Amino acid sequence: MRPIFNSFLVVCLAACGGNNEPQQDTGTGVAADSAAVEVAPPNPYAGALAFSGATLWDGTGAAVLENAVLIVRDGRIVEISSGVPPEGAQIVDLAGTWVVPGFIDAHTHVSGYWAPDDVTDTAEKIRNELALYASYGVTTVNSLGGEPAEAMAIRDAQNNPSLAHARVHVAGKVIEDKDPLAAAKTTVENILSGVDWLKIRVDDNLGTAEKMPWPAIEAVFQAANARNARVATHVFYRDDALRLLELGTDLIAHSVRDRPLDDPFVAKLLESGVCYVPTLTREVSTFVYAARPDFLDDPFFTKSAKQSEVDRVSNPQFMANMAASPTAAGYRKALAQAQENLRIVQGSGVPVAFGTDAGPPGRFPGYFEHVEFFLMKEAGLTPPEILQSATSIAAQCLGLEDVGTLTSGKWADFVVLTQNPLQDILATRSIVSVYIAGNRVAD
Fold this sequence. Notes:
Layout: H1 3-16, E1 49-56, E2 65-73, E3 76-82, E4 90-93, E5 98-101, E6 103-108, H2 122-135, E7 138-143, H3 150-156, E8 167-169, H4 180-193, E9 198-201, H5 214-226, E10 231-234, H6 238-247, E11 251-252, H7 263-272, E12 275-276, H8 280-284, H9 299-302, H10 307-313, H11 316-324, H12 326-348, H13 367-378, H14 383-389, H15 392-398, E13 414-417, E14 431-436, E15 439-442
Parallel strand pairs: 1-4, 1-5, 6-7, 7-8, 9-10, 10-11, 11-12
Antiparallel strand pairs: 1-2, 2-3, 5-13, 13-14, 14-15
Helix pairs in contact: 4-5, 6-7
């Protein structure tokens, strides 16, 4: 209470009181029997955001919540309810929309390649690329190799409530050394640099290259296991994938594409608990530019496409070279096998983590995630299965505790849509806005 107001009360009580006997002073300058002045408690919702009116799917598998009220403070979800937003909060009206958790891509490659051509600073190029992902609803990406060193600093700074681009996790240099000692050395160097994952590549590119030898692969696992580091593996062949599971790989980062998955392989996957990442669009990128693909004229694509890359992949000579490539037909066949194997693992209960291998040239970040949604639908997965793969399951597979579902305590990373994605996965293209840590980052 301000001193001038206290003085006013004292004068008033002295002049107007009916009892002239001395009153006990309480030390405040106000007589003890005067009416107490009550101070209202602070509003718990003051300064919070209330995203109100949407139909919310939280990613846990629970039923949707209609007329949802999502309370966010300091970038994190405080509570979720239904009905009227609380007084004191700043209301963001989302009536008539659908809200889902931000999409998580468990296999990308972040390099800065996709930034506008006039951006030259490496860190700024990476931020631009992460903003491109966010514009398509992809709020977290797991980059499995080849990132510039600046990506790690960006990762280290991302757990803050002012974040305005997709979150990133990194794997550093892809480990492909043929010599066991060199492979172990690269492994340790990556671990000491602070990577989130290690990445090895076990593939011969349809017989056109030499695979990493098994002694070198085993050296990677020995060094990784000694330091409790996680290993993600690029695979193509069923037998290689099985052996990698036996060695203790933590993530099958591509589909098996050489033959149908059999019961012993699926049983090993289930026993290991290792997640399976389909990356169907990776196959598409190896043959789709043999002729100019229709998606290059899709408004959902052109709104954010890097024009210089569009020009490159639609160059007549580039398309002619791809059409003549002996591997293009092989990878087209591999896509069909990958989709069949995705049906098998999904039906068996193996955790399928959404992933695309987007990021290298020709694999357009953000848009290719929506191509992956379509290909997963084509493989027979339902919209809820696809959405969970791209949210809560991907988060669990990557060990990310703060994202993946819209539940109390997690970062407020979510996508606002005009259409129901639980009925048709292509409704994920109906983006109104994207929020990361409660910040509107894309329209």
